[in-house]
Automatic annotation (TrEMBL):
Residues 16-161 form the MARVEL domain. The chain crosses the membrane at residues 20-39, 51-69, 81-102, 140-163. PANTHER family: MARVEL DOMAIN, MARVEL DOMAIN-CONTAINING PROTEIN. This is MARVEL domain-containing protein. It is found in: Membrane.
Length: 303
């Protein structure tokens, strides 16, 4: 009994990157919801929490570009390895500034609250001493900091893939994951591009008789089609050879010949007029009335 294959299927780096971005989208949505919860707490809205909220919104178009462009063939014309790396690097900076801003807001509120309770007998610490609102507001803000740190680290990992693709592109001049990506062929057949080379390959297969189906049996398959094309081409060549060889067909009676000395001569040509009966019969020339116009040396004339 054969053992089952326990090897994991190979996953392209592009798919891994898209999965990370999908996980980031979920975390960003949760961080966005938590920030709204912070705004609903008493104590007002701090600008640092507002900046974190704005970073959540700025991440939406960035994720759409980073995920949709490599995924959908019709959008791949907007893809660029340098653009992907730039967007990932920009999001690293934005999320770093976002979670640092909220972390400073929470730390400042705790420190200020503890300073205000120096003379108090019931000293509080941590979020209980938060000076900018309730303890729950401090706790939720701390949760947003944690989400921000995770999202920031995930953008570092996706930026690694982007800069790796940039290095690959600079080394080879081609887009990475283009050959192994099963949707790459769909891109070449999309509305924004064409693939005439594929059509030429199909035409060659028909011409050489290598097509599939019933071609090998001599029936109505592609192989039979290729043989018919070869036979037609051979007949066309034979027809052209017959037309060019003027000696096989007679001339036209009464045709004008500019080199002739009398009106009864004819041109050595084939009949180009319509004749339902086929070619005319062979015409025998009367050369008695021709003038000799060929070249002769002076000695021959002296004779």
């Amino acid at each position: 009994m054969p053992f089952p294959n326990l090897r994991m299927p190979a996953t392209s780096p592009a798919r891994i990157k898209n999965l990370i971005h999908g996980f980031q989208a979920v975390l960003i949505f949760l961080a966005w919801v938590l920030t709204i919860a912070v705004f609903t707490k008493s104590g007002g809205i701090d600008g640092r929490s507002g900046w974190f909220f704005g970073v959540c919104w700025l991440s939406i178009p960035a994720l759409i570009y980073l995920v949709a462009v490599p995924t959908f063939p019709r959008a791949r014309r907007f893809g660029n390895v340098y653009a992907f790396a730039t967007v990932d690097a920009l999001m690293i900076i934005l999320w770093f500034s976002g979670w640092v801003a909220v972390a400073s807001y929470v730390a400042e509120g705790k420190s200020k609250g503890q300073d205000e309770q120096k003379d108090s007998k019931d000293k509080k610490s941590g979020c209980d001493a938060f000076a900018y609102g309730s303890a729950s507001k401090c706790s939720v803000s701390t949760a947003t900091v944690i989400f921000g740190v995770v999202i920031f680290l995930l953008f570092i990992s996706t930026a690694y893939f982007s800069f790796r693709n940039v290095a690959y592109f600079r080394r080879t001049g081609t887009m990475p994951d283009a050959v192994s990506d099963p949707t790459f062929d769909a891109q070449t057949k999309a509305a924004f591009s064409s693939n005439p080379a594929h059509e030429f390959e199909e035409e060659d297969e028909f011409r050489l008789g290598r097509g599939g189906g019933a071609g090998g049996s001599g029936g109505e398959g592609p192989s039979h089609y290729g043989q018919d094309r070869d036979e037609d081409y051979a007949l066309l060549q034979q027809s052209e050879a017959d037309e060019l060889g003027g000696s096989h067909h007679g001339g036209v009676s009464g045709a004008y010949d500019p080199t002739s000395t009398h009106g009864g001569s004819v041109m050595h040509d084939y009949d180009t007029s319509y004749n339902s009966g086929g070619y005319t019969s062979r015409f025998e020339e009367n050369t008695e009335g021709y003038r000799d116009t060929s070249y002769h040396s002076a000695t021959e004339y002296s004779r």
